[in-house]
Amino acid sequence: MLEPIGQATQAAQNIFGEVSTWSDVGSTAHSVAGAFEFPSVEEIDGVLASWRARQESIAKRGTTLEQLVQAVMNPPANDDATNGYMMTWKQSLTQLRDQHSSMLAYIGNYIQKLEAAKTAKQTGEGETTDALRKASGGITQ
User: Which intervals of the chain are annotated as region Disordered (predicted)?
Assistant: First the structure.
């Protein structure tokens, strides 16, 4: 039953290259009351790097997608069947382009949220360090 999905994945790979899932990204954030809590700033950096790499990879595929959209503007023949096929293809590619743009916007937004979480974590770690220094009679910076 999953064979058509495998064929679709293979077809996408033939056009866009590797389209696999994030198998190289491990779980670093732990779920806490419906949210994620990162153990350290370094782990947030790792997740940010993965998202930025994915963002770059998806953005590069946009060029190929634009070339495909432009290709349907010049049908190989001027008959009803070809024109109908090319119109359907154009509509599909336009929807794919819209999804591509939406995906990039989503990833950009998520990266901003991760950066905000990183800043908050850095601030929290700094405040904790200062509190420990004060409690032990040390000097804060």
Answer: 120-141
